[in-house]
Amino acid sequence: MKLFMTRKDVQRIIELAKKSPIEVCGFLLGRKAGNVLIVEEARKTRNRLNSPVEFEIDPLEIAEVLDEAEKKGLEIVGVFHSHLKCPPIPSEKDLRGMNLWRNVWLIVTPSGEFRAWTLENGEVKEVEVEIR
């Protein structure tokens, strides 16, 4: 699997992480073509836990994003969030979330690191991110 994103979207997510005292989060909206995910838009959401070490997105906001994506002919192809003080590797809580949201998970750090992951058959696999 490969994740295609624009430099602008990745930089925007990293900038959000740099400016925030809490984990930032949101969805990657786009299209799936075989084993390729093409991100058209990074849609920020509110972290309702207001925490520097974990995030949660309000179910009503999830419904709003799903409606927005559908109107644009897109789907949720991924989840993004930041790790403020640790590497961009899924935490135990991330793994539980990945089990529920079977999408790609993009994790960024304020220093500009980013990596993407997926959970397949209980195994965490890194996803190649190609910037276009």
From TrEMBL:
UniProt keyword terms in alphabetical order: Hydrolase, Metal-binding, Metalloprotease, Protease, Zinc
Annotated Pfam families: Prok-JAB (PF14464)
Q: Which GO terms describe its biological process?
A: proteolysis
Q: Which GO terms describe its molecular function?
A: metalloexopeptidase activity; zinc ion binding
Domain MPN: from-to ranges = 3-132
Key word Protease present: yes
**What range does the record give for the signal peptide?**
none
PROSITE patterns, per database record: MPN (PS50249)
**Origin: domain of life:** Archaea
Please indicate if the UniProt record lists Hydrolase as a keyword: yes
**Protein name per UniProt:** Predicted metalloprotease, containing Jab1/MPN domain
Q: Report the source organism.
A: Thermococcus kodakarensis (strain ATCC BAA-918 / JCM 12380 / KOD1) (Pyrococcus kodakaraensis (strain KOD1))
